[in-house]
Each structure stands twice: as structure tokens, then as C-alpha cells.
Specification:
about 260 residues, 8-stranded parallel beta barrel, TIM Barrel, 10 strands, 9 helices, alpha/beta
Length: about 260
């Protein structure tokens, strides 16, 4: 079974591609548009900390005719002294859009009442549809995922790869069976460590980026895996994971073995 088919992003009601695209590393706008048309890649991640000229160009090209097909994710920066409403308005103007599908922030604690109220107003205005969070503090994610801590979170961005598998223990098993949030994974290549020959066990060839994405997407609780290619060739290589489909047992064992070796270093 391949990974080309879009899936529900948890309880959000959005249908998303299994691979999402974080631009800002150099991939041209034409490659982003090709990924949408040929591979149905519609989960597009926008971070203010990246060079997003190509992503902005691609979205402005696609949105007039394909807006309802796109799932656009805007990261909220952790800066003091700015108004969330103004930040969203600036990005809507830059992208030529009326709304953002998903707004999220890296969090170390549950959303404050003030932030919750601001997001609620943005939702009521129709400018933001859903709120999510990313965190390296897995105990917090676990509490929110299980419902032990109440927070208006519709989706998570979670670190998960063959080296760092803690989410298998601390997050995924605690997701509510009904009305569960969406799950998006980042750092699938472990900052490219899984691709480096010198870090491999003796006699073992390094993984490809597609191997890393297949590892992540083979987990049943993961909806989307983020990729961040630097050029069109990398984009094509990464998207091969969609046609390759889930790992078989031998492939999974090999990748876990490599991940454990790197983690032990």
C-alpha cells in the first residue's frame, strides 16, 4: 500500500497528504507546485524564521484555484511584545489569503487563558481555523493527548525518528481513541544523522531520506511527516517514500538497529 492517498488529520476534518513540506531551505516554487499537482502534497508549513520567498510564491500561485485543497500551517513565533492578531493579518496579506488553516506554536506549558481567548477571536473571525502545538516536553504532550490537561489543541507537531523514538512511549499510546488530535512528525532524518555513512554500524549502508519518512509514516498514529528539501532533486528523492509505502519487518528491524546505534553514540 502506497502513501499517496490523503488521510484525515485527526479530528480536524482536514484531509492531508502523508508528506508535508516545510520550505525555506532553497527548494524552488516550481518544485512545490509540482509536488502539489503530481503528488497531491497539500500540507504546507510556513515559519517566520525561514526564507519563505519560494513558498509564498507557490502559495500565491496555487491558492486562487486550489485554496480548498491546501492545508496551510502558520507557526507563531515565541516573541514578546507583539500582537497575535497583527501577525496573522500580516501573513494573510503577504499570502493573498482570507484564512489560515492551522496556527501553532512551540510550547513549554499549556496555552494561557489570554492566548486561548485571542485564538478564539481569530477563529470566530474566520481568519484561523484550528490551533496546535509543538513541544519537546513529551510529558506535557502526553497529558494533553490523554485529556488529563485541558487545552484547545487540535493537532501536535512531534519529534519522532529512528534515533529518538520516545514518542512511541510518551505520546502515541496516550492519544484518545475518539476525537483524537492530528499528529505531524518533524526531524525524520534526525538532522541528517541517519543519512551519514560515518555514523552507521560496521558494514551497514546509510539510510536514504525516503527510508526515514517511510519509518515515520509506517507508525499508525502518524498522519503527516514533514520534509524540508533544499532543491528539486531532493524533493523528488524524498517523495519516493510515497510510492514505496510502509516498511516490511526486515526493513523496520534494520532501521531500528541503525537508530539504536546512533542513539548509543
Amino acid at each position: 500500500m502506497e502513501f499517496r492517498q490523503r488521510v484525515p488529520l485527526g479530528r480536524t476534518g482536514l484531509m492531508v497528504s502523508r508528506i508535508g513540506l516545510a520550505s525555506g531551505y532553497g527548494v524552488p516554487a516550481a518544485a512545490i507546485e509540482k509536488a502539489f499537482h503530481e503528488y497531491r502534497i497539500n500540507y504546507l508549513y510556513i515559519s517566520p524564521l525561514m526564507n519563505l520567498g519560494n513558498m509564498v510564491q507557490a502559495i500565491r500561485s496555487l491558492a486562487p484555484s486550489q485554496r480548498d485543497e491546501l492545508c496551510l500551517v502558520l507557526a507563531r513565533p515565541i516573541f514578546r511584545g507583539f500582537r497575535l492578531e497583527n501577525y496573522v493579518e500580516r501573513w494573510l496579506k503577504k499570502l493573498g489569503l482570507e484564512w489560515i488553516d492551522l496556527l501553532f506554536q512551540d510550547m513549554r506549558r499549556p496555552h494561557s487563558e489570554k492566548l486561548t481567548d485571542r485564538v478564539a477571536r481569530l477563529k470566530e473571525s474566520g481568519k484561523v481555523r484550528l490551533l496546535g502545538m509543538s513541544s519537546h516536553k513529551r510529558p506535557l504532550l502526553r497529558k494533553i493527548a490523554s485529556g488529563a490537561v485541558k487545552a484547545p489543541v487540535d493537532f501536535f507537531h512531534v519529534r519522532y525518528n529512528a534515533v529518538h523514538t520516545g514518542a512511541e512511549r510518551d505520546v502515541f499510546p496516550h492519544l484518545q481513541q475518539e476525537n483524537r488530535p492530528g499528529v505531524v512528525v518533524f526531524t525524520a532524518t534526525c538532522w541528517r544523522k541517519l543519512l551519514k555513512p560515518k555514523l552507521m554500524p560496521a558494514g551497514e549502508r546509510p539510510l536514504t531520506a525516503a527510508d526515514c519518512y517511510r519509518f515515520v509514516l509506517s507508525h499508525p498514529d502518524v498522519n503527516v511527516c514533514i520534509t524540508a528539501p533544499s532543491n528539486a532533486a531532493q524533493m523528488e528523492d524524498n517523495l519516493r517514500a510515497l510510492d514505496a509505502g510502509p516498511l516490511d519487518s526486515d526493513e523496520m528491524a534494520r532501521i531500528r538497529r541503525i537508530g539504536m546505534h546512533i542513539y548509543g553514540r
